[in-house]
Amino acid sequence: MNYETDNDTFSADAYRVDRYDGIAWSVYGWETEPDEDTEWTGIEERTGRVVAVMIGDDRRFSIDVDEIHAIDEDEYCHECGQIGCCHDGRER
Questions:
Q1: Distance of CA 31 to the CA centre of its chain
Q2: C-beta separation of 1 from 60 below 8 A
Q3: 50 exposure class (CB count in 10 Å sphere: 0-12, 13-18, 19+)
Q4: pLDDT tens for the 92 residues of the chain, in order
Q5: Is 82 exposed, middle or buried (0-12, 13-18, 19+ CB in 10 A)?
Q6: pTM for this one?
C-alpha cells in the first residue's frame, strides 16, 4: 500500500475512525496507486482514501477520509492506543 505524506492536512497526533470506536489511529497520508503514466512519470494518483495505522499496532489500513476525526493527544493512551485509557504514565 503506497501513500503520499501530507503533514499539513493530517497534522493531528491521532485520529478517531468511525468504524473503529475506542482506538486512536496515526494517519500516514493519502493512499496512492499507479496509473497508466506512472511507469514513465514516477507519479502515482491519490485514491481519495488515507493510509492509517492503529496506535500500538503496525498493520496499515485504507480508510475513507470522511471517516477520520482528529482527537486531542490527552484523549488516548500513547502506549496501547485506547481512547480513554490513562495507563501511559503521562500527566493529564
A1: 10
A2: yes
A3: buried
A4: 889 999 999 999 999 999 998 999 999 999 999 999 988 999 999 999 999 999 989 999 999 999 999 999 899 998 899 998 888 777 76
A5: middle
A6: 0.85
